[in-house]
Design goal:
Blueprint (H helix, E strand, L loop, with lengths): L2 H8 L7 H25 L4 H5 L1 H26 L6 H30 L1 H5 L3 H8 L3 H19 L6 H12 L5 H4 L10 H24 L1
Helix pairs in contact: 1-2, 2-4, 2-5, 4-5, 5-7, 5-11, 8-11, 9-11
């Protein structure tokens, strides 16, 4: 069966070959999805993630399928180049990689939200998934967190950039509070102030994530 014919059966539950089409889809493209997810996961270079890598990959694979099935196969229907299997495979890799990035970022925010005491105690394991993120995800996270943080406290006075940079130094670079306050830009601050700032930023990011999930 040609790619175009298969595609038509995939998005038509009334088709007598609908179930067969999805089995054929997984036979042809299941490895494409899984390899894209594995590539994104392994780029995180995180010991915590490696311990549960199989379960994480399986969860993200299910998430990709949910995306494809959602709203009457909207993602598949919106794919315009149905005459090119090569372009479909490239698109599927992109969908899978983005889904993996989102799921891993959620895992990262969960770790920040629930491990406040560990972070304050400089627990290496609790920081591992943060510092292990791949470069693409690090920048995505920084942009997301900056947007959330600025939006949450934009009506309040304070040193927004200072607080966010302090959080990054503590969470990502693993500088201890004494080292952070030794920098000229943080002159006059005490180690305790660093922990207060880090906890405040983490709480704001965590609360926004929880409110988003509740909607």
């Amino acid at each position: 069966m040609s790619f175009e014919e298969l595609f038509e059966h995939l998005i038509n539950p009334a088709s007598p070959r609908y179930e067969w089409a999805w089995k054929e889809f997984m036979r042809r493209y299941g490895k494409v999805i899984r390899e894209a997810i594995k590539w994104r996961c392994y780029r995180w270079n995180s010991r915590m993630l490696r311990k549960q890598i199989g379960d994480v990959i399986n969860d993200i694979e299910m998430r990709v399928l949910e995306i494809l099935f959602k709203d009457g196969f909207k993602a598949l229907r919106d794919f315009r180049q149905k005459d090119s299997e090569e372009k479909f495979i490239a698109w599927l890799r992109q969908i899978s990689s983005r889904a993996a990035g989102r799921e891993l970022k959620d895992k990262l925010l969960d770790d920040i939200r629930v491990s406040g005491e560990d972070l304050a105690q400089d627990d290496e394991a609790s920081l591992d998934i943060i510092k292990g993120a791949d470069d693409d995800t690090r920048w995505e996270n920084f942009e997301d967190w900056a947007t959330v943080y600025y939006d949450e406290i934009k009506k309040k006075r304070g040193n927004l950039e200072r607080d966010l940079h302090m959080f990054m130094l503590r969470a990502w670079a693993e500088f201890d509070p004494e080292k952070i306050v030794s920098f000229p830009c943080f002159k006059g601050m005490k180690p305790h102030n660093v922990e207060v700032v880090v906890n405040r930023v983490r709480d704001i990011i965590g609360k926004r994530k929880n409110s988003s999930l509740a909607k």
